[in-house]
Amino acid sequence: MPRESLRDKRARAERILHGLTELYPDAATELSFGSPYELLIATILSAQATDVSVNAATPALFDKYPDAFALAAAAPEEVEPYIKTIGLFRNKAKNVVAASKRMVELHDGLVPEDFGELLALPGVGRKTANVVASNAFGRPGIAVDTHVGRLARRLRFSRHDDPNKVEQDLMKVFPEDRWIFLHHALILHGRRVCHARGPNCESCTLAADCPSAGRA
Description:
Helix content is about 60%, strand content about 0%.
């Protein structure tokens, strides 16, 4: 395949975005939350876990610990029973307690809107920070999880495995005002059509603009 110019890549990205908009017009996070605090905790818990498992655990967790002040006062061992059905629950219990303590100490118990301050919270990397900043505060960002990374590579918008580099590559070809929608739509497409194993290329409406169609 000849090297694609940035102009051509952006034109293809526009067509992909149009297709995703038709497929998933209301694409949004599938994590259940009622506040920035709940979204932050749920997103930390969702690392290497399904949204379904997180959504099943968080109602009881948030009933017991409704805000950062309550969670900061808990010991990780007290939190563990509420999230034991989620992978890596012991480490995640430590992270959500530590993040809550930092919010209480530095941010009056609130989730910081500043991206750098979000990244400084224990258990928060760029993916989590982008999820929270975009969904809670409307800050443009592309959260790169396994689905977004896989589709970015299959669509030849990135050749990297590093999520941070994938994020930068996608930001170069997609318009900023569509970044939030983009990562939600790519996640849905990865879950429903472009599976890690056996992608359903035959029924994929994006196939005409996907260099990997039929070869993934």
